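Lecture 7 notes: from sequence to structure.

We start with a single chain of 253 residues. Read the sequence below before looking at the structure.
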Amino acid sequence: MITKRIIPCLDVRNGKVVKGTNFVGLKEISSPVELAEEYSRCGADELVFYDITASSDGRKIFTDILTETAGNVFIPLTVGGGINSVGDFDRVLKCGADKVSVNSGAIRDPGLIKEAARVYGNQCVVLSVDVKRVNGQFRVFAKGGREDTGLDAIEWIKRGIYDGAGEIVLNSIDTDGVKNGFDLEMLAAVCEISSVPVIASGGAGSIQDFITLFKTLPKVDAGLAASIFHYGEVKIKDLKAEMAKNGIPVRIL
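Now the structure, written as tokens:
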């Protein structure tokens, strides 16, 4: 049986990990290198590293801090932020990333996913989608949740999978940082149409939120969270022990 993955997320701005609520009110927390090392040691299955202002600033991802982070972890690392071309995929992979997450870049150039999958393989391409409810519709937002694209999220994800995305990260802006649980309604809609792994992001506030996620939506492959891990509110070891107690397949050190 395939184990469910627990993935801490490092949202990086100006070389520091930050976290806010509903994608705003960002506060600095720590060094991404130090946090990544800690998570790698304490049982995280993967890590996600987002340079969260690269797209909105119109610049390329900071490669120095990324290279240092990648060199200090021994679990799969997904990297995103400012990914606008196949050349950006190449640069990030050479820094030590295992997978590359694309978001705003794919919205600007819908052919990017197909080309990257052709060059590097589907397993390397992660489509990250920032979604918010607008007039009853799941709407795709770009530039770190700042810009409403008008795109229907379910149709956009369908297209991304068809073009070769090997994994979907669904970021619910509505539940981000609120800590009242994952956006089960939004995730259910995505799981229904997805033939590739779906990672839930946004809303985790407790161990029980992960239990509820995997019990309610067994098609979800992984749970991603930030602040509850960064602030020590939930220890990954404790979370995995509770998952195992609840019959959820999980990798335990």
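The first helix runs from residue 32 to 41. Keep this in mind for problem set 3.
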